[in-house]
Design goal:
Blueprint: H1 2-9, H2 13-41, H3 46-72, H4 75-88
């Protein structure tokens, strides 16, 4: 599995490790920040809470991953990755 990712992304083993760490830490930070925001908003009904949480996580994730990628030296990779993802989801042209 890791070999396929290395080939797909055209990265070495160390860079792959840094990328995976960035994904893990960025995702965890996104969930933590979204929960803090939801505690401030405190929506009254569960379905509103769930809907807002999904929207907040979706909006925060790219920003968090980009911020986390800077100390790992992977900013250029993630900037390109998020652009490709945005194009696939028809957010960007």
């Amino acid at each position: 599995m890791f070999e396929r990712l290395r080939e797909k992304w055209k990265v070495g083993p160390l860079q792959l490790g840094l990328i995976l760490c960035t994904f893990a830490i960025g995702g965890s930070a996104t969930g933590w920040a979204a929960k803090k925001i939801m505690n401030l908003i405190a929506p009254p009904q569960d379905w509103i809470w769930a809907t807002l949480y999904i929207l907040i996580v979706t909006a925060l994730w790219p920003l968090m991953v980009l911020v986390i990628s800077i100390p790992f030296g992977q900013f250029l990779f993630f900037r390109s990755y998020i652009k490709k993802l945005g194009k696939k989801m028809s957010f960007l042209r």
